[in-house]
Amino acid sequence: MSLTVTTWSLEQTSPDDLRPAAGPPEGVTVVRAEVPSPEFSRYLYAAVGGDLRWTDRLPLSRERWRELVERPGTETWVAYEHGTPAGYVELAAQDDGAVEIVYFGLLPQFRGRRIGGYLLSYGTARAWDLAERWPGRAPVKRVWLHTCSLDGEHAMANYRRRGFRLFDTTVEQEPERPDPALWPAG
After folding, report:
1. According to the model, what pLDDT value does residue 154 have?
2. How far from the centroid of its chain's Cα atoms is residue 62's Cα?
3. Phi-psi group of 84: left, alpha or beta (phi > 0 → left; psi -120 to 50 → alpha; rest → beta)
């Protein structure tokens, strides 16, 4: 059995494209995870994407996760609500002056509480100024991402409200896979 999955690619080509959301809800802070940790990265990925069928990175070894999170120009920014991880943004600089928002999302219990708009705004601003934190990196000329029909129901609207513009759409058949549950059924 297969699923039809639509993937939309969106971009900003100037920092002026960013339309920030309102300030953070009370008790919400965003902090860069400055010490790359494959375990923490995998936790965030699974906790945020478990019900959204994020599976591409799950089979990776610890060593491969380490390589990904330690690449120069890769950053993880984590939203916390009163000290509890609520979501994250993973940024990856590319050689052409682009920065990809590789992953963005919230743990299920934090969705629908105005954290996502703020976190996306904050993460996008950090994508635009990423070269300032990585000496020798070219200034950022473009911030881009992709989202798909399996992502959260408000994802596309949030990206558009923050000023991202569509530049490509693809439709593919993907094999049906079970949710990569964090918890046993029952």
Report:
1. 87
2. 20
3. beta
